[in-house]
Amino acid sequence: MLATLPDIPLDVFLLIVRNLEIGDVLALTLTCRHLYTLSTARSVWRIVLDQLIDSFIPIPPSSALPGDTLSAPALKRTALHAMALHQVWASAYPIAKRKINAPSSSISAMQITGSHFIRGHGNRYVVSTEMTIRTGGINFEPRYILRCIDFNAEIPRVVASREFRDHIAIVTNDVPDSVVAISLRVRNALEATSVTHTYNLDSATGDLATMNEFVTDGDPLILSGDVLVTGDKSGNVFLYDVRAGALMCQLHDPLASPVTETVRAVLLPGKVLTFNYTTIKLYELPDPLPAVSSDDPPRIFNPTARHTWRWRIDYLAVAPLVHARAPRPRPVINIWVRFGSWYPWPVNMVHHYVLAPPYVFPPTLTLYTYSALDLFATSEAVLGPYGTVMWTDSQVQNDATAPRAASQRIAAKMLHPFPALDAPPEGGVEDVGVGLGAAADSAITGGRYDRGTTTVFAFMNKGDGEVSHLAMDEETGRVVVSCQDGTISLWDYMPDSSVAYDA
Amino acid sequence: MPTIVSVDDSTVPGEGSSRLLLLVSSDNKHIVVEEDIMSRSRFISKQVEGFEATSQRHAILLPFSSFVLNKVIEYCSHYRGYYLLEDDPDAAPPGRSPVREWDQEFLDVDRNMLLRIIKAAHYLEIKSLVGSCARAIADMIRGKTTEEMREILGVENDFTPEEEHSPSSKCTG
What we know:
A: Monooxygenase, B: mainly alpha, Potassium Channel Kv1.1, Chain A, 3-stranded mixed sheet, elongated, E3 ubiquitin ligase complex SCF subunit sconC (chain B)
């Protein structure tokens, strides 16, 4: 008698599913009734979801948590929804479902200084910081404004705002639905003091409520749960307990030169990595962090390891690769760097490094790609926890003759899975075109030149105002683009339902 | 009715360290195999524990042909004395099956044989072999369409035309 697959028991079927991608699983379940029936088992979709999580494909938070209570069809829908989003997000030219503008401020001459997603709280709020000059009387009066915008309202609207006379800088919480959603630093230049205000955000109305105010040093770098990390101009880093409004500990590098501003930081259990324009530093801390105590002064820690880059950095984006549904204490850290040059402008190249546990320096170069920048063009990069890096440059893909000055590109790369570090380059050797418009994703080699696809989110016409800030949320497939003319728009790539997934 | 055969320990040729088992296939072939070769099979191990309890050693009847059984014994002989993570009852089950070059060659057989081996391995509870077979089946159908999968796996399309044309409605059912 011939053996056929349909006779196989469920646990063997599950083992086959473990070795397949989601598209193959869908095709397999449609071959016959028996396999279709097997696929109504929850464990099949649980395995598929676990594989998506292992591949760092975000699970949209709008779908219910794939916990143990979900039925098989619900788990399947969740997996398909995640794949549908991934398919759009990682395509060569993602098409936005909608692009909507935030209401423009009534104050003219406004400049956006930052825009951030609020994670959780219904995934509907974006906060922006803006600067404006009020011309009234004889004095210039700068005003700094914090606005909270609800983008899920029928027409996006400002649901809360705060105005300050002094310069502000904010960070939003990495942890979704945190009690302290926003930490805002107000710096009084005359008195040389900084005060941090923390805000709770009402998920239903978007209203901001002040939680507490306390004196801090430095500018905010990260807010993760109850821990706020700030860095001052001389390279000192401070860890605050935002609920207590008190300093927990300080990171100090005795070898640091007097002007070494920390620009990025990564907070891991028992470790902090700090990044300035020349050096990465690793600090080992107790885990959990030392509690705030009135008896003992906050402890000071020195770095246990340093890595100085060969070139000065123009800008960098850093993020640990972490899937929200399967957090790991020792994640791989993605580092996206544009190096400076001897000239007052940066190089036309961007580099991706990874720092893998146990975080031994130097970081490993995994790929680099061509990214032309016009003189004085602003450039910005953001890196998400799922490995999407998004940046702006002056590149015009596929057309070397087009006038670059008229355009700005918003490009992205999926840094996961990044090419195996020791894998031979694909595509063979090709000469790099001298033309500035050399296609960014053509198979040019020379080590690890640009493997993988560059995703183009948009070519912007500079007449509409240059992009000054980017923010993205990989879980909900949204991007916030702030332009120098003061407009803020939200681009939404989330497919409406799982039906959009094309296996 | 299981035939009860007494296997005398003294019949072990050569060294006396490994005892013998008598396996009987569905085509009534009697195959003598050293016990520690088959210890990878949880099913056989449990049988042997039973023998120890009653100090009676029986033949073990298996519901598949000697052709398949010999193939399984070949696998077990190859990995005799090797630790394989999947066969460790105390280890956490791995996600994807590991790639083993020898297994890939060993399982380079037709689909029918592969399915018979996986069923035999499942019956005998040899997890590493089940895993390798599952990977081999997955490799055969990866990236294929439903229609191609039917052909590869020898599966007949038994959906009604209506069901066939509304896969999404079936999904939510």
